[in-house]
Amino acid sequence: MIDQRPKDAEAYVDLVEQAIIEVEEFVACLEFDMDEPGEQMRVLDPILFELKKMRAGMTDGSYRFADEDLPFIEVANRMSSQLPFTLLLATINRTHRQGLNIGEEV
Questions:
Q1: Could you give the CA distance from residue 91 to residue 15 in angstroms, rounded to a whole number?
Q2: 3-class DSSP state for residue 84?
Q3: In whole angstroms, what is the distance from residue 84 CA to residue 79 CA?
Q4: What are the residue ranges of helices labelled H in 1-106?
């Protein structure tokens, strides 16, 4: 399996930004297409909140990698068949836990 973790901090910030955009776009689609979006909307708000909190921490320098899952990953995994950006969230979580992919290139 190819390690998809970003190689530098800028790429990691870009990954989080991409996730924020994808979640916001998905929320907009649900609001437009569905009378009652249901469970998806209830889980998207906390995911979006945590992603924005991460981005703010990256901006102000308070973000820290940690060997623990991000708060949203359990819900994202449970809803994976309904969320088109689950792999993106998993990559962000793996990077949060393991750090940047700065290993030697072959």
A1: 9
A2: coil
A3: 10
A4: 9-33, 39-60, 73-78, 86-98
Q: Please report, as a single letter, which amino acid is at residue 64.
A: R
Token output for 69: 């899952």
Give the up-direction half-sphere exposure of residue 65: CA atoms within 13 A in the CB hemisphere: 15
- Residue 8 has, within 13 A of its CA and on its CB side, a CA count of 1
- CA distances in angstroms from 93 to 12, 34, 69, 74, 90, listed in the order given: 11, 29, 6, 10, 5
pTM of the model: 0.86
Rg (the chain; Cα; Å): 14
Q: How many residues does the chain have?
A: 106
Spans in the chain with pLDDT lower than 70:
1, 33-41, 104-106
Provide the residue ranges of all domains of the chain, joining segments of one domain with +: 9-98
